[in-house]
Amino acid sequence: MKGLPYYKAYPRDFIEGTIGMPFELKGAYRLVLDLIYMQAGRLPDDARYISGVLGCTVKKWLLLRRQLVLAGKINVNGDTLSNSRTDIESLREGA
């Protein structure tokens, strides 16, 4: 795996950027960010894999995914998921 073993987190940005989100969506978002960083900024859009990591059903993940996309928190790029900040950080770290 080519991703980052560590990344700089921005807790204030995360907290301020997720105000109003339910706890479950915030938790899913944080784990998906971790997965995106682990995959060098491009997480395969594999519902079974992601739902397994999140510990939820595929159906639940697809609902959470939709909410995160609509909120502008994750981006769909063909068959991968990304995030604007992970794009910048991954490039900066040379991942």
Architecture blueprint of SSEs:
Blueprint: H1 11-17, H2 23-38, E1 43-44, H3 47-54, H4 58-70, E2 75-77, E3 80-82, H5 84-93
Antiparallel strand pairs: 1-3, 2-3
Helix pairs in contact: 3-4
Determine the strand fraction and express it as a percent band: 5-15%
Structural class: mainly alpha
Percent helix: 55-70%
What's the pLDDT, averaged over the residues? 90
> Count of DSSP helices?
5
Main sheet strand line-up:
1-3-2
**Element-by-element helix/strand order:** HHEHHEEH
Please give the largest β-sheet: 3 strands, antiparallel
Characterization of the model:
- Helices cover 57% and strands 8% of the residues.
- It is mainly alpha-helical.
- A 3-stranded antiparallel sheet has the order 1-3-2.
- A hairpin with a 2-residue loop joins strand 2 (75-77) and strand 3 (80-82).
- Helix 3 (47-54) packs across helix 4.
- The model has no long low-confidence stretch (mean pLDDT 90).
List keywords for this structure.
single chain; 95 residues; mainly alpha; three-stranded antiparallel β-sheet; 5 helices; 8% strand
Quick structural overview:
This protein has 95 residues and is mainly alpha-helical.
